[in-house]
User: Fold these one by one.
Assistant:
Number 1:
Amino acid sequence: MASYDRPRAGGSPRPLKTGDTWWYAAVAGEAAGSFSTRVRTRTRRGCLGAVLLLTVVYAGLVLTATGRRWGDAAMTGRRADGAATTVLRDHPSLAGFTTLSLVLGCVLLLAVGLIRKRYALTGLAAGSVVTALALTGLLQRYAPRPRLADAGGLASTGFPSAQTTLALGIAFGLVLVVPYRLRAAAVGAATLWAVGVGAYTVAAGQHRPGDVIAAALVVLAVFCGALALLARRGQVRPGARRGPALPGLLVTVPLVLIAAGGLGVGLWLLGDTLTLPSAAPYDPADLRLAHRCGQALAAGVVAAAGLVLLGLLRRVDVEGAPTPYRLGGPFVEAAGVPGDGELVGPFTEDLDHEIS
């Protein structure tokens, strides 16, 4: 925790002293000690909210018969969806391209961080991705789920989706390594790519929509926890209030449209797809509707997760504490030239220059 960000025993920030970052009050409009606390509080709430939503998704789509039936219908409905079937048949190389893009995404994340010499933040980003993948593997292996007597020929998929976890983890890792002014554009574009990866896994029958939704919530919880740790250590500072908005808008606007449209359409169709009969045969039209509903919900949740993270970090720079301010000039010279290790604030102790 930085010196300017350490609260007193009573919980309130200590008074500012010479050499502290006095510009928190003068420029950023923040009292010393309050900014990191506010960032930590909202990221911790984001982590807790993601965990609670993950619990609801797990209980509703895995532990209940209705949720499992809906997931199976969304998975088998891909065969009845002519558009998805045509795309996968005409472009068989999509599977290899998806795997290659995940590898290149990992390389890009590490390369950006190392080139910019943000070694600690790069390690934190890589550690967060590995943590999310580890939690995904643990949930796939040990999360209780009912044993089905007849799987109906469906492949046993993992809850959550490892591919979506890796793709969205790479997108969120860019928050820690890219410059602040490019964060919205980089993270938004990478989140759009993660939406495509999740949609492909559902269309190819590798995962159910609930697996993709759960993966997005796992990644959001892990990265919110990592950001809360950064804020607790005082490694955040206020970001610029104004900057180039056009590059960010070019990707955040489509992300907002996907999130709003996906969640809206998915929830609207969900009521019709939950009324499937308890046993086969099913109407192909109902299966196709369930597949499109699942695709919409999965895309909407992944896009919304990216927007939530960007919203939590609005005007928050994670590249470390600001450099202490040093002032020179005749007033400082009159008060005595400071030593190399001594920090100087905007005012001096020389009473002859005191402003009445």
Number 2:
Amino acid sequence: MTEVTAAPATAPVSPAATARVLAEAARAVDAPDLVLAVSRNGVRTVHTGGSAEPGPVPRELMAYELGSASKPYAGLLLARLVAQGRVRYEDRAADLLAPGFPVHPAVRRITLRHLLTHTSGLPGLPADFYPQAVPRWSTDPYGGYPADRVVRAFLRARPRHRPGTRWRYSNFAVSVLGHTLAAATGTPWEVLLHQQVLAPLGLDATRVRPGPDGTDAVGHRRDGTPVPALDTGGFTAAGAVRATPLDLLTFLEAHTGGAADSPTDSSLAAALTEVTRPVLRRGWRHAHTHTLTWFHHPSPYGPVLFHAGATLGQQAFLGFRPGTGLAVAATATRRVHRADTFVATAYGLLTETP
């Protein structure tokens, strides 16, 4: 695959200039709580705001629901386990989850790589997910669908396309990946993620469950009504991560090499490199490029890697420019809607600023 050419050299941007850019960008986003955070070679600038009155815990120290922006954590975990030789990208998920269990031939061909890169042929969610979810779609659609049900749905699935032939975004597939890695290592997903990703990167304010009272940001519907904390049920790997904006910057800095303390563990360093490498193209004229776990776009300043996520009442955006030391993390506590400007604003910080 042809790589995007390196970014042109740019003059250093001062923290004061970055602060002005963030303050201006924040005016475009309407949310009770908003955090826009930028790291340039480890030098951080954070802007907080929103329509709600600030609480006793500063906004940048609250843990926010990442939704689908959790998937880069799952991708880094898989890449590290591969670097350690504990699994392979081409391992078949069904063989690890339920050895000898009779499954559809297409399911038998689904590999860990297929699950992570949304090329498994599985739908976005299991077909039997919707009857239990629709009656509580705005309050708790996932909580009634536990892990064992996700696994059963996978083992009896009939993929719509041959694995590896088409790209279709799938929370179902990445959730199956999480259960498969837990089965392959004999370690619960939450423990595995902590051991392999969170602890080595010093992500002490990142977790997959709600924290102590007062430490988690509260999501809101469009009308400002608070919504309960998200319960992801059996879809933990696809969307359960919660983190403070400062921890999000630490996670991203590890990918850019912009932090002062780069990973010294060889398997972690290899994994961080692996997840930034483009591996597939999709769409009209194959214009859309992806790494194992990040969306990959060109920009005037070089390639950008990013992932956005949304839950019932919160949004998150993670992005960085490889090799430049630039990282952008953004969180907001209002449910996404058609005229929403949050993602576009955060994306602009990543692609339109030197």
